[in-house]
Amino acid sequence: MSHISPEVEKKLGLAVEKMPAFPKSVQKVLELTRNINCLPRELVGVIEKDPVMTVKILKVINSAAFALPNKMTSVNQAVVFLGLNTIKNMALSFAAVGILPRMNTAGFDVQRYLMHSLTVASIARKLASQQVTGDVDPGDCYIAGLLHDFGKVVFAQFMPDEFSAALAYCQEKQVPLHVAEEAVIGADHTVVGSMLAARWQFPTPLVECIRDHHKESGHSAMGDCLRMADQICRYRQFGDSGNPYRVGEAVIAPQRFGDDLDAVIASLGDLDHFVAEAQSFALVGTE
């Protein structure tokens, strides 16, 4: 962060410190699932000790978004049927939703932001499993998508005046939001977002992915999946990250995915499933 003034760096650090921590149950879930030898019963044991998390997971998997043939009545059934990664992603999603402020004075629409983040997460996971097989864990791409713009939440909650001015600058000058943030605040959401991810003790590759997701080159497979998913969601207007798609934008990561955005979208199949899943997560998570 050498390009950031000490004053701005201090201000960002204070804002990050005010953000709540992830629930201990979710931290334990993430710790367990980083171990490739994690047993399903270990994950089930942690989740079942959190009754709120248990209810939310069962409510979502029994929703129309998953269209399961039979109703699931336990976390153990859910893990067996859907797998460790899906349940982990649910737990993480609900934790992220729970941290979001219900209101802010910056004029930032948190609900539309949430839809954007959840759909980016799902599409990044799909790109990883379908087109980047073996290069990156799809579950890690989901987490990157979910958390990539969390720095905007920090700005909206703890630096609302500056962030409101950046949002206005973005629209007035027709520039990307991270450019507007740099001009108005002195740092963009990728910086504060990566600081937050580090504070939450996420792995270094994820922290770096969040920090670098607006850079034009030098990306990992995770970074490319995230950037492409983000562009697809802005292009199709899935939610709103405060940074609208602009006609004529170059396609992200053409070396990995090609330079035809519509072709990449077509390769993913029906995107309505991703939107339905995101809506279900958002609805249950905010109850």
Summed up, the domain count is 1
How many E-type strands?
A: 0
Helix content: 55-70%
**Separation of the first and last Cα atoms:** 38 Å
Strand content: under 5%
Give me the oligomer status: single chain
Write structural notes for this entry:
By secondary structure, this protein is mostly helical. It has a single domain (6-285), classed as Hypothetical protein af1432, CATH 1.10.3210.10. The chain is 66% helix and 0% strand. The chain is built from 17 helices and no strands. The chain has helices at 6-18, 24-33, 40-48, 51-61, 75-82, 84-99, 110-131, 138-147, 150-158, 160-173, 177-184, 189-199, 204-212, 221-235, 254-257, 261-267, 272-285. The longest helix has 22 residues, at 110-131. The protein starts with 5 loop residues before the first helix and ends with a helix. The model has no long low-confidence stretch (mean pLDDT 91).
Q: What would a concise description of this structure say?
A:
With 287 residues, the protein is mainly alpha-helical.
SSE diagram, text form:
Layout: H1 6-18, H2 24-33, H3 40-48, H4 51-61, H5 75-82, H6 84-99, H7 110-131, H8 138-147, H9 150-158, H10 160-173, H11 177-184, H12 189-199, H13 204-212, H14 221-235, H15 254-257, H16 261-267, H17 272-285
Helix pairs in contact: 1-12, 2-3, 2-6, 3-5, 5-6, 6-8, 6-17, 7-8, 7-14, 7-17, 8-14, 9-10, 9-12, 10-11, 12-13
What would the keywords be for this entry?
287 residues, mainly alpha, Hypothetical protein af1432
